Amino acid sequence: MSKIEVTICLGSSCFSRKKRDIVSALQDYIDQKNLSNRINLKGGHCLGKCSVGPIIVVNEQIYTGITPAKAIRIIEEYLSTQNN
User: Fold this and answer.
1) Burial label, 26 (beta-carbon count in 10 A; 0-12, 13-18, 19+)
2) CATH 3.40.50.10990 holds for 4-83
3) Please, which pLDDT band fits residue 7 given cuts at 50, 70 and 90?
4) What's the CA gap between 78 and 14, in Å, rounded?
5) First-to-last C-alpha distance (Å) of the chain
6) What percentage of the chain has pLDDT greater than the value 70?
7) Residue-averaged pLDDT of the chain
8) Looking at the DSSP assignment, which residues form a beta bridge with residue 5?
9) Neighbours of 5 (CB within 10 A)
10) pLDDT per residue over 51-76, tens digit each?
């Protein structure tokens, strides 16, 4: 089973839109659920979609308007797909 690749935009616009909260929420979720062997969380360069940030990319799919709760829901969807 391949790891889920999660990239969080580290551009200044996403940063000003509570990016740290998203990073913390995802890292806490990964740690609490012991998912470090299934999820690779990393930062990435600006994707040029600043007006719709914060942005995460999961397995090359771009998601916009991200909140901590939305980010976790997206990850849970990917995990459930892998389990089927």
Assistant:
1) buried
2) no
3) very high
4) 23
5) 12
6) 99
7) 92
8) 40
9) 15
10) 998 999 999 999 999 999 999 999 99
What angle is formed at CA 66 by the lines to CA 65 and CA 69, rounded to 5 degrees?
140
**Residues in Cβ contact with 13 at an 8 Å cutoff, skipping those fewer than 6 apart:** 46, 50, 53
Other C-beta atoms closer than 10 Å to the C-beta of 69 total 10
User: Token match 């990016």: residue?
Assistant: 19
Give the tokens for residue 34.
Answer: 């012991």
Q: Is 66 helix (H, G, I), strand (E, B) or coil?
A: coil
Beta strands in the chain (DSSP E): 4-9, 39-44, 56-58, 61-63
CA nearest to 44, candidates 31, 57, 53:
57
CB atoms within 10 A of CB 8: 21
